[in-house]
Amino acid sequence: MIPSQLRATSSNCIGLQRAAAALLCGGRLGYHTLRTQTFRSPSLFQRCLSPQSITPNTKPTPSSLRSWTLRPLRGLSTGKIVLKPTSAAALSTIEDTTKHVGITPTAQLSAGGDTVQVLFEDGAKSEYHNIWLRDHCRCPQCFHPKTKQRLVPSHAIPLNIRPISFTVTPTTSNSQAALHVTWPPIEGVEVSPHASTYSLSWLGDHSYYPVIRRPESRQPRKRTLWGAELSQRIDAGDLSTPYEEVMKSEAGLAPWLRHIAEFGIGFVDGVPATMEDTEKVARRIAHLRETHYGGFWSFEADMSHGDLAYSTVRLGAHNDTTYFTDPVGLQMWHQLLHTGTGGASLYVDGFHCASKLLTTDPQAYDTLSRIPIRAHAAGDPHVLVYTEHPTAGFPILNHDPTTGALHRVRYNSDDRSALDCLAPSDVPEFYRALQAWHAIISSEKNECWTQLRPGRLVVIDNTRVMHGRAAFVGRRVMCGAYIGVDDFWSRVRTVAEGGRARDEAI
């Protein structure tokens, strides 16, 4: 439960961050269900935290969700944040739209004439600019029904376009409620007035002035954060999908995709220990991403490439291809042969560790989110990938520039280039933050160890999960591939989520 009053001053800013992390993780220990974001700084936390951004372990009713508000956080310093329960008087002014089901929907032109104001059947209201409405006509003449691409160029629509007429029809047994608009013809595109129909359901899902709701297809996905305890579930086969099922049908493939989407890791058991069969499994997700290692590759400790993966030494937790502008999305391995001992595989949930860092050391979190780091791949004579401009690297913790949500961990100490990208004042703090980060990712509580074997294939989300291995002896032959992150999420939507409501999402 949110405390009745939480005050943050300059002396207890860390307390605010701990409260934030508790909210973000649903107040649970061990496995955390994350439907919200991890933020890169206290200021961003102020800007982004809202009742709508918090999803507790038990989904609240609309009234309980509205029973708390954050008194305006935007623009305030951390020393002025006060979290209080909403007063009964304030609650009485909040319109409970559930009481208005059955209202006759209407539309009217705004006083300025540049927007259409829509009243929905549940009592909600939103406005839409005329040019936006014309640009979003989904009729077959304006939007191709198969390719889902626009047919009318946006730049051709007059900025001052206004409807000739419009009306709203309510929901009936045969049709959805809809806004019907007649537009003047667009010069050079049409010769007669154009009729557009917008379902109120679609308009509500795409509302922006204000936002009424967002469809399920555009809600944050469930993510389960984990630490060392995941090893038990892996060994028990909880995150495994049978090879026969994966290869037989899309329905059989879906559980594997869901494991990767939720946990950042998923296994397939019973794979024949050959490169040919392994590659076929990889291509069940998507086409492979070519790099300087090839498309589908095998490796052993022969140093055939200038990379420590081609040795027998221990590898600490890291992400692959941090030197690319667009690092690989998924990484897959299958151990085909091992005649010796050692070589256990290490997996670390970077999002889980980031939430720990935000809780315990928000200054270090901010530092690793702010300072760009250059990286390189230069071990092979025919390969030289590196960041040329000294300040054009990427931070270890990458956030969405609009929402501030953590969306990628980009950590590889071995591939880091010279730190000439740091301002003098940042040098001590960067190394301090780096050590704080390493202490978390190398903690036994956060390291998930498991032993791969012939027949068991693993895929990790390289944007989230770091990997490593123990040192080994003997001959050890691995094969694997990379897959693009966008190709993976496309398959999740179309296979594991039944199309993710294609029309409402776009």
Description:
- InterPro entries: AlphaKG_dependent_hydroxylases, GBBH-like_N, GBBH-like_N_sf, TauD-like_sf, TauD/TfdA-like, Trimethyllysine_dOase.
- Keywords: Carnitine biosynthesis, Dioxygenase, Iron, Metal-binding, Oxidoreductase.
- Residues 237-482 form the TauD/TfdA-like domain.
- This is trimethyllysine dioxygenase.
- With 506 residues, the protein is of the alpha+beta class.
- It has 4 domains: 6-92, no CATH class; 98-212, NE0471 N-terminal domain-like; 236-341 and 453-496, 4-Layer Sandwich (Double-stranded beta-helix), CATH 3.60.130.10; 350-441, no CATH class.
- Helix content is 25%, strand content 22%.
- It has helices at 13-24, 42-48, 62-65, 88-92, 130-135, 200-205, 230-235, 243-248, 250-263, 275-285, 350-360, 362-370, 427-441, 485-496, 502-505, and strands at residues 6-7, 32-34, 68-70, 82-85, 106-109, 115-119, 125-129, 165-169, 178-183, 194-199, 223-225, 240-242, 265-269, 296-299, 315-318, 330-338, 345-349, 376-377, 385-386, 397-399, 406-409, 448-450, 456-461, 465-469, 476-483.
- The longest helix has 15 residues, at 427-441.
- It is elongated, with a radius of gyration of 26 Å.
